Amino acid sequence: MEKNGMILYYVQDEKKKIELEVIGMSMSITTKQLKPSDLNTQVGKLAGLKNITPLDLTQIEKPPVIFCMPEIIIFSGILNKSLDEFLLSYKNIGIPPTKLKAVTTPKNINWTLYQLIRELSSERTQIEGTVKRLSQAKKVRE
Q: What's 128's DSSP letter?
């Protein structure tokens, strides 16, 4: 992995893909496009990290045969300052938001891409539910 880290992503829009690549290049950050065939691969392996303990693939949950892979961006080995700079550039260029974003952690580098997507999707659903409840509670008080 490059010393400036890596951005792994899956987006369907070609323009968005190019914009992500350009931001990465301008910051000297390696970018890697993910594919649906990566779903059963560990996040750490996808990020090029060493010493990732292989999973027993017979024991992990696999994606359904028909699984529509959502857009996702994963940041690996990127300093907070660079991450902030990337996200600001992303916003300033006007790239449509990507709902699922993650930073690699000692725990999630051992997960498969599918496991990470499931976890992020679950967290996103919980957050959106909380925001909706708070918004409704605020309207009731007004």
A: H
